Amino acid sequence: MIVEKIDLNLDQGTFLTILGPNGAGKTTLLKILSGLVPPTSGVVEFNGRNLHEDSIQVRSRIGVISHRPFLYESLSAWENLYFYGRMYDVGDLDRRIPEILGQVGLELFAREPVGNFSRGMVQRLSIARAIIHDPEALFLDEPFTGLDQQATEILSSVLGRFKTRSRTVVMVTHNFEQALALSDLVMILNRGRMVYLGPVQELDLTLLKELYRRAVEGDR
Amino acid sequence: MPFLKKVWYITWKDIRSEFRTKETMTSMLIFALLVLVIFSFAFNPTPTETKRIFPGIIWVGFFFAGVLGLNRSFARERENDCLAGLMLAPVDRSAIYFGKVLGNSLFMLVVELVTLPVFIVFFDYSVRGSLVALGLIFLLGTFGFVAVGTFLSALATNTRTSEILLPIILFPIIIPVVIAVVQATASIFAGASWSAATLLWVKVLVAYDVIFLVVPFLLFEYLLEV
Q1: Residue B36 has what pLDDT?
Q2: What is the pLDDT of residue B95?
Q3: Quick count: other Cβ atoms within 10 Å of Cβ B176?
Q4: Residues of chain A contacting residue B92, judged by C-beta atoms under 8 Å apart
Q5: Which has more confidence, B58 or A2?
Q6: CA B225 → CA A39, A40, A76, B18, B83, distances in Å?
Q7: Pairing relation of β-strands A62-65 and A137-141?
Q8: Which of A89, A137, B76, B103 could make a disulfide contact with B14, Cβ separation 3.0–4.6 Å?
Q9: Could you report the predicted ipTM of this complex, rounded to two decimals?
Q10: Can you give the pLDDT at residue B177?
Q11: Which residues in chain A are closer than 8 Å to B14, comparing Cβ atoms?
């Protein structure tokens, strides 16, 4: 069993950060929550809809930013966004694609094949891909890892916009500062089990690190 | 209708990608032509022998070339983990399968259309029979091969030796298609386009195509989650 005994209820607009050592099951949990992997037991519900039984409806409201960009290198930025936009039934793509490329600073590279992009540009386009359908919930797996300065600022501003518009965000990270700066709730996961869940208001960096150390060591 | 639209967008994406890279079609075409040249030198057939072996030779060339295309089909989705991106999209996952089948069938039909005249000229073969019947057999044979091949390509894609594994698991399963399509093609080339024998092989191909469209439709979602 990779992940077990996770009982979690997130209100709309909550920003949850999941912390934990390597191999704790963070990515697996995110895959289960986003519908990429079905749970062997238990249920995931989104706005009262069962993710497994009503998966198409639920998936249409979710965006995922992973380690990997999910982008086709032989297609241009425009074509990638057009393809994903069509898959998510986004209307008026002729307006939406330039708008979203502008948000990630790639409007001048719309017709360029993704294979010619730098790593930072690919990551920015990956952000655009994940939010092209304006999802109600965003799942991010270590999204800041390896980002250049510009991409970091763009992602922070996207997350800020999500927060102000009461969209739900679940982010996996190793970065304690980001967890404190962005989240409402912090979860610590170890060996597939939730060992801590609490609001961020009660925490500062020292306390969070201490909690993390105790949670991880105490579980050994 | 929305389902068919999503199927088409997946095919559109593959066609667009192929237009850019030309890697699948080029390798399939070159391979089919190489098979033609090798068979031509290996057998150096007399006109009577050509009459007997020609349908088999062309389909062996098409199927071998087709395997190259099938191997690329899901390898393209492995780059940047695009398959996960497709699986996250709000679409029945069988649409991924049908989109791929449509794209692979189109690629293979283009290769057949280009190389068949070269095969005919190279072997100095005089073709008889109905073009409509021949077109139908090519459609059914190609579709049957691609339907099974696409499903097995998805199965093999996560293994380290997918290029080797795919032909090993594919060819035993497509033996009924090989027999039916070669016999039907031979029958048409012999001038008996709509004979009882041809129609029998058409029925075999239709049955095979239907079975191998329904089975992956039911199993594809589970296959992706493996």
Answers
A1: 87
A2: 95
A3: 16
A4: 56
A5: B58
A6: 11, 12, 29, 27, 11
A7: parallel
A8: B103
A9: 0.91
A10: 95
A11: none
CA distance A80 to chain B (A): 9
Q: How far is B161 from chain A (nearest CA, A)?
A: 22
The answer to whether the CB atoms of B80 and A79 lie below 8 A apart is: no
Give the residue among A178, A172, A90 at the shortest CA–CA distance from A130. A90
What is the average pLDDT value for chain B, to the nearest integer?
Answer: 91
Q: Which residue has the tokens 């989109």?
A: B99
pLDDT digit string, tens, across residues A32-69: 999 998 888 889 999 889 988 899 999 999 999 998 89
* Residue of A70, A119, A121 to mutate, interface with B, max B Cβ within 10 Å: A70
Domain boundaries, chain B: 2-225
Q: Across the interface, do A87 and B91 touch by the CB < 8 Å criterion?
A: yes
Q: Which residues of A touch B158 (CB under 8 A)?
A: none
Residue among A46, A44, A43, A42 at smallest CA distance from A12: A46
What average pLDDT does this structure show over B60-82? Answer: 92
Q: Which residue of A has its CA nearest to B6?
A: A87
pLDDT at A219: 58
Could you read off the pLDDT of A155-194 as tens digits, one per residue? 888 888 888 888 999 999 988 988 898 899 999 998 888 9
Q: Tokens standing for B72?
A: 């690329």
Which helix H or strand E contains A65, and what residues bound it?
A: strand A62-65
- Restricting to A residues 139-198, those with a Cβ less than 8 Å away from any Cβ of B are none
Dihedral sign computed on CA atoms, order A33, A181, A145, A143 = positive
Q: Which of A215, A148, A139, A144 is nearest to A181 (CA)?
A: A144
Q: Cβ separation of A36 and B87 shorter than 8 Å?
A: yes
The burial class, CB within 10 Å (0-12 / 13-18 / 19+), for A92 is exposed
Closest residue of B to A36, CA-based? Answer: B88
